[in-house]
């Protein structure tokens, strides 16, 4: 049995048939460490026929009593391509010795774990991290991101740790090499460019203003650049390891009283507060990002490989329709107009299809995420990657501006959850489940996560996985975090 | 006195000193026709010292009893560079003779005004149009757009008039040359690409779906393409005429029970219904469109002419700061992070400045509009136009889904109005003014527009134009429409 799993792993971790097959995986396939699965349970988790729900054990203490549940797909891939991570780490200054050099080794992990400078209370600034990574075309990118993204964020924040220690001071615009604020002689700069050094004209103000950047904007920027760094690391390590596929990445980071939710892909996070839904993400799909992708195709037509057109049509055009008029829209349009069909319009549309069937270049149904550097249009030499962005959208929720009860939570889930259950249904289900649950039960958020997951998976009937209303359940991998927003003092 | 105006006109209509000076203006300078100004009043309107408010006359019947007021700037340009139009026109089928050819003469006006096919009740489908055009660097583009944009929209809608007549039918995806729906043999097309012509696989569905497009989306698309056509027409006619500058364009189009508000620039429209504000536009400025512009500069660095960098910094960088770290953000980021300064970062940022002082390439403070084809960065050969977009954002308001009282209105204004008066203040002022006004007074909306305008202009004191709270009034040109949403049956 185990060898079957091992075989599956070695096949899939390597990804699609290519030279990468001979490379070792960057990380072996597995489920999140916090599940603490035995080999038998790992094997059990891969049963597509029964789709068992995995949750954390009663004695496993995830930070904040975080609830978690996951289930494998109904057969669309051999392994569960979702991954998850939940970590408490500490943001620390890098040691003086290393401050001026890159703090990252090739694998993206701090060089100086044993030599942190003391920061704040001596242990660093606590950072809580929750991530869900929805892989496709293999598990490699999702596993690697689940192991490293929080470390990259921690280390990048470590570089500005001395600024975080003064939360009421705006970050200096310029830093000297030793990290201390650097004040250029801007007056001199101004004088050089105006004829009268004493004249403060509108134009000199315009040319010499300084924008004030908040500490929150700095943290957002650090998270954004950490996603880019993660993506670059995957690309770089493909030279030495088999890192298959790509993944949507959704991360929640709690730092100094604020919750930063960063999303690249079609996973989703909502806050449920007093039974109301506060959306924390937008999904990035071929439909929601149509204009960005069309704009890129319009500006860089060579990326379309003479096979695709950046113009959208409501259906494919046939040769017999040349010269007729067809509805279209380009990157500037939200509405539709008619255009006379020319030869170039016979190419396949860059964006095509509706809803879950919408695809970029007939290949992929999400438009942001990590990995996918080798992904090409089937039977062609056209790369998808330039159209995919690894940039997350980051939203911020101030935990301290709001009062939270024990039933107020952050729910994070991959699209398997949300495809069949709406935000409102999730909020109602969680609120209803938690209100019937002992507030002191350490398992209450995991049970709520399991309940949510069951609602989207359904039960196996003769005609497949079905919800109580007989609609089809989700056949996708499903991963859910339920994170309580009110915590005992000891947990902050 | 008049000759002074004439001189000013001939100087300014021609625009900046260039070969265009020797060309005739496309349209002579003037104020909107509906103001029906005498030469004396036209001269009076240009007095920067007194800034007289112009409104429509009591006996001028603008459609829907529309209210209007305008005032010249406090001296920043010799003439009022705002323009406005308010028209009731009829959408008609082009004649059969012309159906297959372009319906536009070179000046963008229908070739066949005297030969419309009868449509609906014989006169065509009524279309109401309100436009405000905020010019810069000359009046030419704003005047031309105020004369022609509504005609372009009317004529383009005329091409699909037969589809508008069946408001409950979705527009056909493909039209034959005679305008009738064309149904391709899609089954045959599908069969050619799947091995088994009878097999309906997921992939064949994906490749052969048809999107349903609503009539509303078609009208939106027609408006969007009419803006592009208007912009192309300005460019084309610059070969024969002096058409100076560019303009922000804000248009409201009422057609068949729906109000389409199309905005390209920093003018603004709000609906005030039951004293509540419904925003109908977003402003397009260097700050709001930063990422779009940075993306273009990133993908097409040659457009930056080796003078500008697409990366944003909070202030200019000095040579002495090379090698230090500075806050930055690129086209993927919302937050800020630190980067080590390299030689390339010493270039001037593509987007620079804050609020009303933000500029694209240190030159222009709006990012959408018509015209500006000749606009270059000062003392360089770098064109601004590729960064400016003529594409409007179109929002739709369903007039028939809502009940409107006599104090419910659409307010449209150039930025001169909104720079000093917030949406909320405008809504409070209009609601308060109208509620104290006889509902049957035909001038009530013009008086409300005049009241709004005075609130933003203020009164002339020793220290310039001041509001009652002593803050500075707007020194810009100001143009305001107040359009009632409830109308007598006879006016629909």
Automatic annotation (TrEMBL), chains A, B:
Organism encoding this protein: Gasterosteus aculeatus aculeatus
Gene Ontology CC: one annotated term: mitochondrion
GO molecular function: [pyruvate dehydrogenase (acetyl-transferring)]-phosphatase activity
Domain PPM-type phosphatase: 65-485
Signal peptide, first to last residue: none
SUPFAM superfamilies assigned to the protein according to its UniProt record, in alphabetical order: PP2C-like (SSF81606)
Coiled coil regions, renumbered to chain: none
Alphabetized Pfam families for the sequence: PP2C
Protein name listed in UniProt: Protein phosphatase, Mg2+/Mn2+ dependent, 1J
Xref: InterPro entries: PP2C, PPM-type-like_dom_sf, PPM-type_phosphatase-like_dom
PROSITE patterns: PPM_2, PROKAR_LIPOPROTEIN
CDD domains referenced in this protein's UniProt entry, alphabetically: PP2Cc (cd00143)
């Amino acid at each position: 049995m185990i060898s079957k799993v091992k075989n599956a792993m070695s096949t899939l971790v390597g990804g699609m048939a290519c030279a990468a097959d001979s490379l070792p995986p960057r990380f072996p396939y597995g489920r999140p460490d916090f599940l603490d699965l035995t080999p038998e349970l790992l094997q059990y988790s891969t049963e597509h026929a029964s789709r068992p729900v995995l949750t954390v054990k009663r004695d496993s203490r995830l930070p904040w009593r975080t609830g978690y549940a996951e289930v494998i797909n109904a057969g669309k891939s051999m392994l569960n391509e979702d991954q998850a991570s939940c970590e408490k780490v500490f943001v620390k200054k890098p040691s003086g010795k290393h401050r001026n050099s890159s703090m990252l080794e090739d694998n993206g992990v701090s060089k100086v774990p044993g030599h942190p400078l003391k920061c704040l209370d001596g242990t660093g600034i606590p950072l809580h991290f929750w991530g869900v990574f929805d892989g496709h075309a293999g598990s490699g990118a999702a596993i690697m991101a689940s192991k490293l993204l929080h470390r990259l964020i921690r280390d990048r924040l470590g570089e500005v740790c001395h600024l975080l220690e003064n939360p009421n001071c705006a970050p200096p615009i310029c830093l000297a090499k030793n990290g201390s604020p650097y004040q250029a002689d801007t007056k001199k700069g101004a004088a050089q460019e105006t004829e009268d050094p004493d004249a403060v004209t509108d134009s000199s103000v315009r040319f010499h203003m300084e924008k004030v950047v908040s500490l929150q904007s700095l943290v957002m920027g650090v998270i954004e650049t950490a996603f880019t760094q993660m993506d670059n690391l995957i690309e770089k390590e493909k030279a030495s390891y088999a890192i298959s596929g790509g993944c949507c990445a959704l991360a929640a980071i709690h730092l100094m009283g604020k919750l930063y939710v960063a999303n690249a892909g079609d996973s989703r996070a909502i806050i449920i507060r007093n039974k109301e839904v506060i959306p924390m993400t937008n999904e990035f799909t071929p439909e929601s990002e149509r204009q960005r992708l069309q704009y890129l195709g319009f500006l860089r037509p060579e990326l379309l490989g003479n096979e695709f057109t950046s113009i959208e049509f409501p259906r494919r055009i046939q040769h017999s329709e040349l010269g007729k008029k067809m509805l279209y829209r380009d990157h500037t349009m939200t509405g539709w107009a008619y255009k006379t069909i020319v030869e170039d319009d016979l190419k396949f549309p860059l964006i095509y299809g509706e809803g879950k069937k919408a695809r970029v270049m007939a290949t992929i149904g999400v438009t942001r995420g990590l990995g996918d550097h080798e992904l090409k249009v089937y039977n062609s030499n056209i790369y998808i990657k330039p159209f995919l962005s690894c940039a997350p959208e980051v939203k911020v929720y101030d935990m301290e501006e709001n009062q939270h009860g024990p039933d107020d939570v952050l729910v994070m889930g991959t699209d398997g959850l949300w495809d069949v259950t709406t935000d409102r249904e999730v909020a109602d289900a969680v609120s209803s489940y938690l209100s019937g649950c002992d507030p002191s039960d350490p398992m209450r958020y995991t049970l709520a996560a399991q309940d949510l997951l069951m609602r989207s998976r359904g039960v196996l009937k003769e005609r497949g996985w079905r919800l109580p209303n007989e609609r089809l359940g989700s056949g996708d991998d499903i991963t859910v975090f339920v994170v309580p927003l009110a915590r005992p003092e000891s947990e902050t």
